[in-house]
Hints:
- The protein is mostly helical and about 180 residues long.
- About 55% of the residues lie in helices and about 0% in strands.
- It contains 8 helices and no strands.
- It has helices at about 25-40, 45-60, 65-70, 80-90, 100-115, 120-130, 135-145, 150-165.
- α1 packs antiparallel against α2, α5 packs across α8 and α7 (about 135-145) packs antiparallel against α8 (about 150-165).
- The model is unreliable at about 1-20 and about 175-180 (pLDDT under 50).
Amino acid sequence: MAALVQPHRLEARVLPAAPRTLGDPAAVREAIALEVSRFMVGEIDRDGLVRATHRLIEEGVESPALLALGLANENMEPDMAAPVARLMAEIGLGGWDSSQAGQLLALHAAASILGDVSQPIDGARRIASVSSNAQFRDLVARWEADPERRDALDAEIRRAAADLFGPLVAPQTTTRALGAAD
């Protein structure tokens, strides 16, 4: 007779007032913002968001709001808006909306293009699907319609991805000689 497997249950425990982990706090904030943003723009559904919260908790993120969001299905929470808003406020992004979520995901996809993590067309498709960026919708349509120009369009997509970040400001350098008086 096969043993019954118990479903994964999250344990309630006293947690700090803000997300904490042994890793980089900025990375934790980004991971949470990315997962919530994916939910807000429809890339993942409610169950996907709950699975993402479970993964973050299993990775060591300690957060009362993350735990509450992870328990939303077990508590039969009818609307995810309140637990999502609480989590985003906890990480300093109170008032986060789907437009901002789309912008974050678009920047993330642009970084994937520029870092050669994803193919230019794949990143462009994602940007077009999560944001209101007409330039990327046009680039995707042109890429799909003209197989002969795909290499040139890939380069155009890379330039457009770089443009999403805006002009990069070079750090100021000083040319004064060592030991020179101010």
